[in-house]
Amino acid sequence: MLRPGRKRRDDCYAAHKSDELSSSHARTPLPAALVDAHRLLLNPAVAGFEPGLVLCLSASTSFVGLPRLCHVVAQDDFLPRPFATFGRRLVSSVGIVYLALTARLPLTVFDGITDRLIPLFAIGAFLTFSMSQTGMAVHWRRELRDKHHAAERRRVWFNLVINAIGASTTVTALAVIVVAEFAQGGWTRSSPFLA
Predict the structure, then answer these.
(1) Percent of the chain, pLDDT > 70?
(2) Which residues contact 187 (CB under 8 A, 6 or more apart)?
(3) How far apart are CA 41 and CA 50, in angstroms?
(4) Contact between 50 and 41 (Cβ < 8 Å)
(5) How far is CA 123 from the centre of its chain?
(6) Shortest CA distance to 68 belongs to which of 94, 92, 99?
(7) What are the Cα distances from residue 100, in Å, to 35, 72, 118?
């Protein structure tokens, strides 16, 4: 039920759209598909699927990225040689098996209770995001020293600024998550040894 004096969002949108059309400097309205997608994502029935989608994408990223990373590191002789060999489907089968076996470890230790695993997942995700963004910022900083042409320096500066913003954002999010978990007692909740 709307309070008196309040307009519905659709009425406001329609009024705003008619004002835009009447002005001489009218901006182009949002495409209907974008407005429909926005409404769909805010729908409570759909919003429940979004965390599941994020978890599926992050698991997919792990199972795709870690074997490739292990392959490259094993080629430099920092991991055992079997990680460097590809299997039948052009992926590092040893890396996938290793990831699957090590993923069972926290599930077993924490009895598969998601309330205990989610803080670990959040910290792990934001820690890796922070490390990768910081690493890219350091990379672009080093590249900046080698570039002498103005156009190349602008491109490198742009990439450096983007990655520096990403690094500061993810480090801030990581700090907030860690402080919030300590404040809420998440470490005692997460650890089966302290519970």
Answers:
(1) 63
(2) 181, 194
(3) 8
(4) yes
(5) 12
(6) 92
(7) 40, 19, 18
128 three-state secondary structure: helix
How far is 168 from 137, CA to CA, in rounded Å? 10
Q: Does residue 158 have a pLDDT over 90?
A: yes
Q: Which two tokens stand for residue 36?
A: 């429909």
* 115, 119, 122, 155, 160 from 133: Cα distances, Å: 28, 21, 16, 17, 10
| DSSP letter string, 107-120 | HHHTTT-HHHHHHH
pTM of the model: 0.57
Amino acid at 146: D
- Provide the token pair at 139: 């990379």
Q: Which of 4-18, 39-53, 73-87, 129-143 has the highest mean pLDDT?
A: 129-143
70-113 confidence digits (pLDDT tens) = 888 888 999 898 888 887 776 678 888 888 888 888 888 888 88
